[in-house]
Structures
1.
Amino acid sequence: MTGWPLVEDAPDTADLAKCVHCGLCVNACPTYAITGLEVESPRGRIHLARAVAEDRIPLTEAVQGHWELCLQCRACEAVCPSGVPYGRIMERARAQLDAAPPAKGWQRRLRRFALRNVVARPRVLAAMLTPVRWFARSPLRGLVRASGVLRLAGPLGRLEAQLGRPGRPFRPREAAGEGNVALFTGCVMGELFGDVHRASIRVLERSGANVFAPRGQGCCGALSAHDGDLEQARRLARANIAAFEESGGEAIVVNSAGCGAAMKEYGELLAEDAEFVERAEAMAARVVDFSEYLAGRDLPAGRLRARVAYQDACHLAHAQGISAEPRALLGAVEGCELVETEGADMCCGAAGIYSLIQPAMSGELRARKAAQFREHRPDVIVTANPGCQMQYEAAVREAGIEARVLHLAEALDEAQGGESSPA
Ligand code: SF4
Ligand code: SF4
């Protein structure tokens, strides 16, 4: 007997049974750290999933609330001695909410519409974000901020606080051609963080890579998967698999931690798809994070005189197990003083679209980061994921300090001489 409304994408009974309730994950969990409540811990959420699976409790609005407060940061998964695949469990639990939402159906429908029809469609996304880029760089922004109207603007005000000064968008045609390293350009990343892609290409090429950006690639599907829309995530994964099969390139370098984690798990996502499963696994084996690719390669050391606070992106540190490589790359830069802040590996509260839909918890986590920045006064904050970069822009303002927020690729590129330095 099962209480799941969508049986084919239900959390796997064997996955749930792996949890032995030891509680070793509880103190790694940001939502438990803030609330102190068992139901807002990984163990509590798994317990609820088992109770629903065994039809002991219905899928209520309260259960939905506990699952939706989860950041899907996977800090719990990284410390679990029993190998509980928490990320997979929660994606599938959310697929149940997607199929039969006990509450806030309109919000879920709106999110699904936006993820399917805006984020996943490059032309629509570009049309939507062009005015955003213009506003972010215009004098109007200062006036709007000074007017105080943004405090009344809800999610729009929160988005504005996270917006840095986006440069030109980067589209794959800018680096078309062939090479041995295929750059994944993503959706929002290409539109709002085009300069990160350009910096990534320069740094990779200084390490000896020949980089190109395959056409036909698009959103990785992570945002849809985290929201429980596994059907859409699979559709996007298949499109990327076809694009990167055609493009060639021995490595697929990803500079967005959330996308990289999702793409390394394409085989799992398409495990039931007989036509695609092997192709998905073959593609996943080619995916490497930007810092993972550079580790051990010869790079110009460069120079950056700054106190640098590196903040782990959850989907790099916890989902991909990569935390030493970015620090080693920064540590090799002359003049770069690495400042370790408390909780550098704890989620900043960005978590995809989490900061928009769970503003209170997201704000609590951002405030913790802001307090650390205020205490340590770094000159530069470095991370490896676009959502985190946006959240740190807001945290820096909240801390009232002057620090710059950079992607790891931008920090390394600047140290190596930036645009003016040959690849
Ligand atoms: S998820 Fe892992 S660490 Fe957490 S309670 Fe279950 S077995 Fe223990
Ligand atoms: S994914 Fe993160 S927020 Fe969710 S239960 Fe695990 S540690 Fe807590």
2.
Amino acid sequence: TARKQAEQQAMNLARFPAENPNPVLRVAETGTILYANPAGAVLLNAWSSGVGRPVPEDLRKCLADALVAGQREMLELHLDGRTFAITVAPIAEARYVNLYALDITDRKALEDQLRQSQKMEAVGQLAGGIAHDFNNQLTVMRGYCDLILREKEGRENVADWRHHAREIRGAVDRAATLTGQLLAFSRRQMLQPKVINLNEQLKAFSATLERIISENIRLVLNCQDDLWSTSVDPAHFDQAVMNLVLNARDAMPDGGQLTLETRNVELGEDYARRHPGMSPGQHVMIAVSDTGAGMSEETRRRAFEPFYTTKPQGQGSGLGLAMVYGFVKQSRGAVYLYSEPGKGTTFKIYLPRSEISLSPVAPSPKSSQQTLRGDETILLAEDDVGIRQLAVRILEQFGYTVLVTTSPQEALALANDSQRHIDLLITDVIMPGMSGPDLARNIGLARPDLEVLYVSGYTQNAILHHGIVDKDVNLLTKPFGPRELAEAVRRTLDRHKPSPPSGQSGGA
Ligand SMILES: Nc1ncnc2c1ncn2[C@@H]1O[C@H](COP(=O)(O)OP(=O)(O)OP(=O)(O)O)[C@@H](O)[C@H]1O
Ligand SMILES: [Mg+2]
């Protein structure tokens, strides 16, 4: 009876995989199916195979690899419109693998739906945030413009006008900051990286930072000696640090300590694998730490989302960290945050070490209104009527002769037909029909000494690689004012003028 009992037990056990509602298969090293439970029929049918017959070739390879590696693996198979997650468990000593499958079709569909709805929610929040902030600035501009327009003829109230203009200017700057942060977040910002030492950058900037934090906050600078150099846009780097420092200040209303720290760090393969978005290798790390309020779990999770803010209405736009995130990503780095409620917060930015040695600091000559003038001839191609008219006014005020065109085709025709000498082409980067760079190339064929100044609002275009501007490209970013335009024009025109007495052979 002991034997009978054992037989009974064995039978019971044999029923166990057969009763499994999920497919279970055993496959020999050769690819021959040794066993399939009834639920496994789904897979066998899809493969038009059966016990004693082979699995499909690509799967056989996969299983053989798993056997060699001696490691369990996860696969996803799409069969007859259904998706299976399959655990491949190699049993090396028996030279076969067990497959445990799970139909995840419905779960996947649900996940997709959830992801879609989360995406829609995020987009909605983003659009709402932009609309709200922008409308505020537009209301200011519209209001003051109407006030000016309503003034009676002859009643020349210059003081009022100046005041209104200043208010409009302020609203424009705030709106420009907003678009700047959004571009930063979407990684479409124009970055002009330089190879710099971040210690010096931070030290130079710390005076400004001292001014914006309150007196009861102590600023400590803890810089590593011999810090590696890194390639980064200095102005945007300052902006990112500023955003972190402002947040730290707001988190310490009763005072505390704010620490800026730099370190050389070598990230291993292992670290990079555990931190998505990080590449292994040598990095420069900048940490900004405070002893403030810290963040809740939810805030920690959402902090980098654009327009996510816990600050009262009107005090935070929720774009500070979104800008930091976009900037760091665009600079091929990574940013992490560590925070505990009541203890404080640390942000760590990692930027890749630069192979190149430090860029020489170019002295920026202070240009006066006078030296910005010129009498050259400029061909302007700009399809936006508002910007076109503004540019013409500014350029003529500074003494230039302007040939105005409203499309790249028109500009090309004018350049081809005219015998006039043209010193400079100013063109938008993105225009209907022909890109700015293509226009410049076409005109440049017949006029090799033509200089080009590009105007653009964002980076999705041909003259940039991942938003990084080539060194020999002259670029003016929107929005710009009279001075910025005049300076960019002069800089572009003078670029090849003071040719050094030696070297230049004239390019025959
Ligand atoms: N150092 C910090 N300590 C505690 N909480 C922080 C810190 N930095 C950011 N946060 C939290 O993350 C949120 C988002 O920060 P973010 O800088 O993106 O926007 P904001 O500061 O609210 O507004 P903005 O920077 O646009 O003025 C903040 O509202 C705050 O709740
Ligand atoms: Mg902020």
